[in-house]
Predict the 3D structure of the following.
Amino acid sequence: MDLSQARWVKATASASSNGGCVEVADLDTAAALRDSRTPEAGAHVVARSVLAAFLDDVRAGRYDR
């Protein structure tokens, strides 16, 4: 998938002390996610519904240790 024209947005809550950050691009029916430190490494493209379900799980604490 060609993401060269994607508009990337850094997630405000993902900044860490090492400068790592997640970037997200809205692709209409999908979303792309990548590491802002290594954008050349590629991106994960998922259906918007999959990303929404993941974010719901995060908010619910499913991945908390």
Q: What stands out?
A: The beta strands are 8-10, 22-26, 30-35, 44-47.
